[in-house]
Every structure is written in C-alpha cells, then in structure tokens.
Design a protein that fits this description.
Layout: H1 2-34, H2 55-63, H3 69-79, E1 84-89, E2 92-97, H4 100-108, E3 113-114, H5 127-138, H6 144-167, E4 172-173, H7 174-191, H8 198-215, H9 226-253, H10 263-269, H11 281-294, H12 297-312, H13 314-330, H14 347-359, E5 365-369, E6 373-375, E7 378-380, E8 385-388, H15 390-394, H16 434-451, E9 452-456, H17 466-469, E10 471-476
Parallel strand pairs: 2-8
Antiparallel strand pairs: 1-2, 3-5, 4-10, 5-8, 6-7, 9-10
Length: 479
C-alpha cells in the first residue's frame, strides 16, 4: 500500500513537472509558428509562460534579487551576446535590446518606431505633425531665457517644500514626498501663472500616481486590476484638464490673460503655419496628459536617490557641500540668494547627478514597431514592443571602471561622455524636459547640501525598492 502511494505521488509529480515544462514553451512555440515564414527572422529568446510571459522573472529581478541586471543576464547567458532577444513582457511580444548601438538606431528612427503610449496625444499623429507638436510645446523649456523665467518660482517651491519636510515630527517616505514639489514645478510649466483650484490639482496628482502605477502593468482592463484603475484615472485627469482649458479660454474671451507664460498658453496661442486653425481641444488636453504622465516622477526619483547616495558617501557629500559653500561665498552681499547663473557653477554637483543617472537607470524605455522592421540582422513584426535597458550599458565594465561603485569623480577623466550614456534618451523623441529636470534637481540639492541632512529610520530596509521604502527625517542644520 505504501509503495502504491509513493508510486502515485511520484507519477503525479512527474506529470506536473512535465505539464509545467510544456506550458513554459507554449508561448514561444505559438509565436514561432505564427511568424515562421521567410518574411520574419526573430532573434533568440524565451517568451515565458502563456499570458504572463517573462513577467515573473522580470519582477523577481527587481523586487527579490534587487538586481535588474539579472534579468538581462539571463538572456545573455542563455542565448549569447547577440544584442537582441525575444521575450513576452507587459502583455505583448517584445524585443529586449542590450547594446547601445541598436538602442540608438531605434531612438533615432522616428519613421519605424513610436513610444506606443495610448495616452499620448501624438501617438496617432503623422511624423510631421508630431514634430510640430513637440516644437510648439517644448520651445519654452529648452532655452536659457525660458528656464530663467521659471527659476524664481522653482526656487520658492523647493525652499518651502524642504522647510515643510524638516518641520514634520514623524518620519517621511522620501520619494512620495519629493513627488509633490516636482509635480508643483511641472504644473507651473504646464498651466501656471494663474490661480488654479488646489483641490483640482490634488485630484490630478493622485490620479496620475494611479495612472503611472497601472499603465506599465499587464494590460488587463478588468475591474480590480491595476491597468483598469489606470484607465479610469486617465479619464478623470482628462476631465480635469478639460475644465482647466475651458476656464483659460473663458479668461481669454474676457481679456483677463497675462503674457504667454506656460505650455497651455503657448498651445492656445499657436497657429498653423498655413495661418489656419490652432490646436484642437482634444490635442491640447492629450498633450497636457502626456507631459504630466512623464514629467515629474523621474525628477523625484533622481532627487531621492541622489540624497541617499550623498548620505551613504560622506566624502562625496562633503565635496559637493564645499562647492555650494564656495558659490555662496562668491555671491555679492546685495544678492538675495541663489540665482539662475549660479547653477552653471555647480560643476561637481553636475557630476553627482550624472553618476546618479548612470547607476539608477533601472526602468526600461519602451518603443513600438510601427511597421515590420529589419534591425541588426533580424526582421521584427509590426506591433512588437522594444525594451531598452540603459542599466546594462551603464554598468558595462568595458566603459566604466568599477561600474557598480558610485563615483562622481569618474567623470573628471572623460572629456566627452561615453556614446552609450544617454539618460534622457537620444534622437527626435528624447526627453524634452531634461533641462528643466536638471535645473530642478540642482536647486533641490543646493538647499539640501547647505541646510539639511537626512536621517534614515531603517538603513537596512529593502535594498530592492529604496525609493519607495526609504523612510526617515529631514533635519535642518543650525546656521
């Protein structure tokens, strides 16, 4: 009887393992058969389980192992250093890109690749129209003059926020708190200069957080799933921006507007080159949504990580603080405080930011093939996603000595940055707000270095999600 039971359980175990092994190859077999014609030539790879693909391994590499490089390493080790690998991620057949050369080809090719975000106002626009929209919306955040226009208000937002952090008795989560001033700066640039209901902006802030959390998850639009909540949040944000747009148009009709000072005003003021009509309401709202989606969380993440790195490396913190103190000492006695031109003097702080961007480029950048494309010897079907992991370039020991080490001084010996270093992307769709981001980060770190320290409540807490889990107190230094 005991022997029969052992035999039964053994057979059951073997059966389950066999079934699991078969299921693990179903996804890859399906797409191999679907694209088996001579028209396509897919790179090697592993497409994981049905429906979920490689998401378990992807999430483990971030949350369990604390090493996003382990996900890419799995493909490189198993299939060799070919630079491109097929996978199934975020509910879509995908190509993982692991070389900067291929990555740049994708970023530079506006004809064949798109961001693929359904919330983008330009996702269905022609290339020419997309370029026109980007020109209209970004001209006022790229130049020296336009950035200086926003400087005083950014300065005020940062100072007030750090004061509030330090005044709190309880410990705070760094990243969520820093999202608030980053969002305030973004709203200043998008719609600022007028009195806008704080309650309305609070709704946009909360709903955008839901949208960001759910948008990059599995695209399961069923109640209870994050993606479904994200789609609902997108609808709420759209309604909020429509209300703001209607209010602004009413002010224009009543001649209560000020000179053009934000992106919304610029879009309303923009006219077609043919002297025809301006941008439609739907296009304007879509663009506001697009820039809100992409425009502030990254600043808060980099600020959070930079503060953590500085606190972890006292020597680097001392050197960065010394530079800021020298800037203050050179300041005329008549000066009221930090001014825009002093940002250019922050040479070492700029290297600290470059190093933070290098070692913390964890999130993949997405593109979608708009048509069947030939790339690096492979033919990839239309609609497949491309995921580029900048982290794998930035941790290349052939480019950087001791790549895992946080060392801003490594940039001293580089007359030009490596060709593989492009934290804000490259090509026609590179991040248009990179200058604003660096300006905001410089202001945050200037005041932090001079007047504050961060005391982490639990330094040994999760190494895999430090941005979410890092908790502690901002302490104001005595004068």
């Amino acid at each position: 009887m005991e022997f029969d039971s052992v035999l039964l359980y053994t057979a059951l175990g073997v059966g389950i393992l066999t079934l699991c092994n078969m299921l693990k190859h179903v996804n890859g077999l399906f797409y191999t058969i679907k694209f088996c014609s001579s028209k396509y030539h897919l790179p090697p790879g592993d497409m994981g389980w049905p429906f979920i693909g490689n998401m378990i391994l992807f999430m483990k590499s971030f949350k369990t192992y604390g090493n996003p490089g382990s996900f890419v390493s799995y493909f490189v080790t198993k299939f060799g250093p070919v630079g491109m690998y097929k996978a199934y991620l975020f509910g879509s057949p995908s190509i993982i890109v692991t070389t900067p050369e291929v990555c740049k080809k994708i970023f530079m090719d506006d004809d064949n690749f798109d961001r693929g975000k359904s919330n983008s106002a330009s996702s269905t626009a022609s290339n020419q129209e997309d370029k026109r929209l980007r020109r209209i919306t970004t001209v006022h955040i790229r130049t020296h003059g336009s950035l200086s226009f926003y400087f005083d208000r950014i300065n005020e937002i940062v100072k007030n926020s750090l004061e509030k952090f330090a005044a709190k008795e309880e410990a705070i989560y760094v990243f969520p708190e820093l999202k608030k001033p980053a969002f305030e700066v973004l709203m200043l640039i998008l719609i600022g200069g007028y009195e806008t209901s704080q309650k309305l902006l609070d709704v946009v802030f909360e709903e955008t957080a839901i949208l960001i959390r759910g948008f990059h998850g599995m695209p399961i639009n069923i109640p209870g799933f994050a993606y479904n909540r994200a789609m609902k949040a997108q609808g709420v944000i759209t309604q909020m921006f429509k209300m703001i747009l209607d209010e602004r148009k009413l002010m224009i009709a009543e001649n209560k507007v000020r000179p053009v000072s934000n992106m919304l005003d610029m879009m309303l003021d923009a006219q077609d080159i043919d002297g025809g009509k301006g941008l439609s309401d739907d296009t304007i709202v879509g663009l506001l949504l697009q820039y809100t989606f992409a425009g502030y969380e990254s600043v808060a993440k980099v600020a959070s990580k930079t503060i953590m790195h500085l606190e972890k490396h006292p020597g680097i913190l001392h050197k960065a603080k010394e530079e800021q103190e020298q800037i203050v000492r050179r300041r005329p006695s008549s000066s009221a405080g930090l001014n825009f031109d002093e940002i250019r003097q922050m040479k070492y702080l700029s290297k600290v930011l470059d190093e933070t961007l290098r070692v913390n480029s964890l999130i993949p950048i997405f593109r979608v093939a708009k048509t069947t494309v030939n790339l690096n010897g492979y033919t990839i079907p239309k609609g497949w996603k491309f995921l580029t992991f900048l982290w794998s370039f930035n941790m290349d020991p052939n480019t950087y000595d001791n790549p895992m080490e946080f060392n801003p001084s490594r940039w001293d010996d580089m007359e030009t940055k490596p060709a593989s270093y492009f934290p804000f992307g490259v090509g026609p769709k590179m991040c248009p707000g990179s200058n604003v981001a660096r300006l905001s980060l410089s202001v945050i770190l200037h005041y932090f270095l001079l007047s504050y320290r961060f005391e982490q409540a639990d330094p040994d807490k999760s190494k895999t999600k430090p941005l979410d889990n890092c908790i502690g107190k901002f302490k104001k230094l005595s004068a």
